[in-house]
Amino acid sequence: MRIAAELKSPLNRLFVFETEDGYRVESVFYKGERLCISSQVGCPVRCAFCASGKKGLFRNLSAEEMFNQYKLLKEKLPIKGIAVAGIGEPSTNVSEVEEALELFKKEGLKVTISTSGYPIKGFKRLIRLNHDGLTLSVHAVKPETRKKLFGVFEPLDDILNALKEHLSESSSSRRKKFQLGYLLIKGVNDDRENLELLGRIAREMRLTVMLMAYNEIPGVGFKGVSEQEYEDAFLFLRKMGVRVTLSNRFRRDPLGGCGTLTIGREV
What we know:
This protein is 30% helix and 23% strand. It has 267 residues and is an alpha/beta fold. 45% of the residues are buried.
């Protein structure tokens, strides 16, 4: 693997890596401390709003290829943590993700993971890994909305039940490492019914909601909510008694924000 290109914005630095067999994937260094790495070439989930999976899955990345995204940058960047939240669905590549996680741990790095929960078998393994935080990307609660947003998915009840079972066996400190991710998309999942259903789940499971702003992608067709609508959704959940965090400016940056990473970028 080699660094094929680097792009910079005032907030983030995006790196394009080329694998030995000629594929290109991306990582982002953001917030001046965390490297967001890819776990696959492409993605099998193919979320309708996301650029990363538009072409589907080409292959898994090996643990070595995941680790090399850090190894090739560690001398030039003050990397303090790893987020397995770039291109790919970690639940479909659990064995290699687990091996990579242990390599990162040996470097003294904290590792967080983001997942859609698909497939359920892989998700059940993923949540039990020695991670430092896991975000379950819910994005929609109603089945008809999930069908609109996800190319493939597990029933949300099955995913939540698997997580509930794990949390019931976990300490309070372990529980704090899990949260629900929810990407607000205008006219799709930002209505009060969806938000209320999300709030009920979060309250029942005593989990924080990370309410994310959508980074609009040319040619995809989805729109983000306004600043006022974003704040209104935040306040609505807060009034329900839900712990809520918002996307920081690094995650909202067009260069390397949620859903904007691609495979095969030519620079």
